[in-house]
Design a protein that fits this description.
There is one protein chain. This protein is an alpha/beta fold and 244 residues long. 42% of the residues lie in helices and 16% in strands. It has an eight-stranded parallel β-barrel with strand order 1-2-3-4-5-6-7-8, surrounded by five helices. The structure holds phosphoenolpyruvate. The site of phosphoenolpyruvate has 13 residues, from β8.
């Protein structure tokens, strides 16, 4: 039985004061459940703040990106070992905003997932098609290609990863995939995972998840939780959807 995992992606939002209030509210409001893991992925400068606030609680924390390299002349990048020093459990790799705005290739995403695991972090590898790709009937090809790159890079370690299906057309748009649309893609990914001997990998859905739609999405057999952007910045909303 795969327990559900709900992860907040703060993106490039926050500040010391507002983070402190949000973290306190998450700690105070979350009723621990054996079948549910909860986490926040915060901007790099706030990892220490997240660690100090959340250590010893049911909440895990992580980062939103990582370098494929362990160290060296890579100005502006952050190594997985550095994230591990801050107690990170998770790191996002291949978020569509990294792919689209920073030109990250499938191979780069796979290499980042490898680097994360080498440092003891769990990579949350994001895949998802654009609206144009969906309308052209290409979602299987796109999502399959993105998945295959991660699987090829991780090889026998694929079972240690988490996947997130995030249709680009549903991210930050208020437009959510229907539970049935999400399930269709998650079942496709589950079959790929099964063929790779990694059927137990959790597959999160991301794209305008909120308290009002989380229960129906999470009820789908292959939806193992959510990766949540905007709604993770509002404690009451995030707590409600995480418990849905
Ligand atoms: C995300 O960026 O991972 C995301 C799912 O964003 P939102 O929930 O705001 O659509």
């Amino acid at each position: 039985m795969r327990g559900k995992l709900v992860v907040g992606n703060w993106k490039m939002n926050g500040g010391l004061a507002s983070n402190a209030a949000l973290l306190v509210a998450l700690l105070a409001g979350w009723k621990p459940r054996a079948d549910r893991d909860v986490a926040v992925c915060v901007p790099f400068p706030y990892l220490g703040q997240a660690r100090d606030a959340l250590a010893g609680s049911p909440w895990s924390w992580g980062a939103q990106d990582v370098s494929r390299h362990a160290s060296g002349a890579f100005t502006g990048d952050v190594a997985a070992g550095m994230l591990a020093e801050f107690g990170c459990r998770f790191v996002l790799v291949g978020h569509s905003e990294r792919r689209q705005l920073h030109g990250e290739s499938d191979a780069e995403v796979g290499a980042k997932a490898v680097a994360a695991l080498a440092a003891g972090l769990t990579p949350i590898a994001c895949v998802g098609e654009t609206l144009a790709e969906r309308d052209a009937g290409q979602w299987q090809a796109v999502v399959g290609r993105q998945f295959d790159a991660v699987a090829a890079a991780l090889e026998k370690d694929l079972p240690l990863a988490v996947l997130a299906y995030e249709p680009v057309w549903a991210i930050g748009t208020g437009r959510t995939a229907s539970p049935e649309q999400a399930q269709e893609v998650h079942a496709f990914l589950r079959e790929r995972l099964r063929q790779a001997g990694a059927a137990g990998v959790r597959i999160l859905y991301g794209g305008s998840v909120k308290a009002g739609n989380a229960r129906d999405l999470f009820a789908m057999p292959d939806v193992d939780g959510g990766l949540v952007g905007g709604a993770s910045l509002v404690a009451t909303e995030f707590l409600a959807l995480a418990g849905a």
